[in-house]
Predict the 3D structure of the following.
Amino acid sequence: MIKPQSSVAAELTEVQLQKLLPELLKTQPFHSKNGSQMQSLVWKFHHLGQDYALKLSKAKSQQAAKFLYREHEFLAVIDHPQIARLVWHGMVNQHYGLITPWLPGVLLHDAHHQLAQFLPNHQARLHCFLNIKAMVEYLHQQHIYHRDLWAKNIIIHQATPYLFDFGWAAWANEPTPFTPPQMRAPDDVKALAVLRQQLGIEN
Ligand SMILES: Nc1ncnc2c1ncn2[C@@H]1O[C@H](COP(=O)(O)OP(=O)(O)OP(=O)(O)O)[C@@H](O)[C@H]1O
Ligand SMILES: [Mg+2]
C-alpha cells in the first residue's frame, strides 16, 4: 500500500487542504482540457491570493496513485525557477494528488499559431528555446529525463518558458519505463529539435 508522506508548505496547511479540497472538487469544474486525462485530472484553485494546480489521480486504485506518486518524486528534487514546484502531495478523498503553483501564461501549444503575439521576434524565440534547452540540461544534471517535452507541457509567460508535467519522466539510471507507442516525445534531445523547429528558429 502506498503511504505518501505529506510535505506541507507554509502557505497551505494540511488541515486547510483537507477541508478545502473536497468542497472545491464538488463546486469547481476541472481544468484539464489540454491534458491527456488518462491517469489524472487537473484542477485550478485559489487560496490566499495564489492560484494552484491540483493534479488528482482519476481512480482510487493503488495503480492510479502510483503514477502520480512517481511524478512527485521528480518534482521533489527539482529546484528551478522555471519548473513547476511541488507544494504538497498526499491523499484527498482517497485519491492521490499533487499541488504545484498555477503557472500563469499561455500553453506553447496555444501560442504556437500566434507566436508573433507572445514571442514577437527571432531574438525572443531564440531566448525561449535556449531557456527550454537549459531546463532540459538542468534536469539531465539531476539524472532526470522529462520524456514528454512538447508544446502542451510548456507555458509561456512574459516571453519566458515554464515547464511542468513529469508524468512520464524517468531516472537516467533506471531501466526505461513503459513507453506507449503513441508517446510523442520520449527522447528529450529529439523533442528539443522539434520545439526548435516549432519556434521557427533557423539553423
Ligand atoms: N502548474 C500548472 N499551471 C498551469 N497549468 C497547468 C499546471 N499543471 C497543469 N496545468 C494544465 O493542465 C493540463 C494537464 O496537466 P498535465 O500536463 O500535468 O497532465 P496530463 O498531460 O494529463 O498528464 P499526463 O500526460 O502525465 O497524464 C496542462 O496541459 C495545463 O493546461
Ligand atoms: Mg501534459
Remarks:
- The first strand starts at residue 40 and ends at 47.
